[in-house]
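This entry is retained here.
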Amino acid sequence: MNMIFERKLEIPMEVKKRFPVSKEMEQTVEKRQAELQSIFRGESGKLILVIGPCSADRADSVLDYIGRLRLVQDKVADKIFIIPRIYTNKPRTSGDGYKGLLHQPDPNEKPDLYKGIIATRDLHMRAVRDYGFSCADEMLYPENHKYLDDLLAYVAVGARSVEDQQHRLTASGIEVPVGMKNPTSGDFSIMMNAIRTAQHKHTFIYRGWAAHSLGNPYAHAILRGYTNKHGNMLPNYHYEDLMKVYELYQKSDLVNPALLIDTNHANSGKDPFEQPRIVREVLTCRKYNADLKGLIKGFMVESYLEDGNQPVGGKCYGKSITDACLGWDKTERLIYDIAEML
């Protein structure tokens, strides 16, 4: 067998016992979960903003960013519900490159998955404990979700995972909202089928157990742009695209119809400075059409302390080592602009 088994890793229950959530942290997570669910049910008119670094590459700069975000959240709390991004594992299109905090707690050192599991849990715990933020993470590996499920506010299933059966079935057993992105091909039917699967009950194998899920009524759509057969990135946040998603929901029996717009990736052509313009266009569409106002619940924005990105090993504090991000000054201005437009 062309594989080396290095060590047996602790199961989620064991890690949680060693790094337990306090009663105060549990209450913070539950309170935010209830408020977020009320937004998806249409009982609250707040806008959701899933925002933060492309990848959570180091704890100090990520927590610095979240601390700044806390101050802004307090000022716009009546209009915007902020969910910081703490994305700890990263899909790589070619399989090469930095795969996230889970793989490499130190991006300049060799992979250490044991330390990575501890580092990811610690970072999410500190966000809840020190800043009152339960955060978002991408479910790249469904079997790893249980390491963080008592801390998260939101889960995203990426464009390369959304057609995978295990991702869909696992999403059906998650309590918090799960966003299903359109695939890289742009096919809306794949995204809608993923939502349908996640909203239904299932029996399946999970971490060696026969598991029974109850269905997730908060599974919903995310538009992130797509790539055509020539490899060109194309957007899908324009009015016609938004209305198409609305029509697909209308023809379905899905509950809590909801859509988030990912303003980076193919929607921006990976130009992070296009993100504020995209937000403004979508908010204009939302104001123009009452149906869209009810459907579009918020945005995903890639943002960090410094504009742009740098190679792994770069010395600029708070600058992305994966996709380029919007810097803090522009981010702060964007959040206040959103609040003014609502």
